[in-house]
Specification:
Strands 1-2 form a two-stranded antiparallel ribbon. The protein has 122 residues and is mostly helical. β1 and β2 form a beta hairpin.
Length: 122
């Protein structure tokens, strides 16, 4: 088998591994169903457990018992958490870009000074 054939075979195997479907059974708030996703079962269970914890925390803190209201409020608060993470990451990226830009400007100023010194010595 040539290197190219082996490479193509490995690529097909990798694609197949990534596209494996996994089922997750969800039983929450008086309803149950299954979903199919391309994520690992351990990951899917972790997401479901995090949602269960969030539901429990909302239920404990608000006293809500209505499943629809619990689901909506939990989803809303999780979206709020995601939005805060995005905003923090964006602020960090802006600060990082500013630091890079500032460092670039300092470097360019130093190069200009060196060029001036070299030109004056000629």
């Amino acid at each position: 088998m040539s290197k190219n054939d082996q490479s193509q075979r490995n690529e097909r195997i990798a694609k197949g591994a990534r596209s494996m479907k996994n089922d997750l059974y969800i039983d929450l708030l008086g309803t149950s169903f299954s979903i199919t996703a391309e994520e690992e079962p351990v990951y899917l269970e972790g997401v479901l457990n995090n949602y269960r914890l969030a539901l429990g925390n909302i239920q404990d803190s608000t006293g809500l018992r209505d499943p629809l209201k619990l689901a909506i409020l939990t989803g809303f608060l999780l979206c709020d958490k995601i939005q805060r993470i995005y905003q923090r990451e964006a602020a960090e990226q802006i600060a990082e870009n500013y630091e890079t830009t500032e460092a670039e400007q300092i470097t360019l100023d130093m190069i200009a000074r060196i060029d001036e010194v070299l030109e004056s010595d000629r």
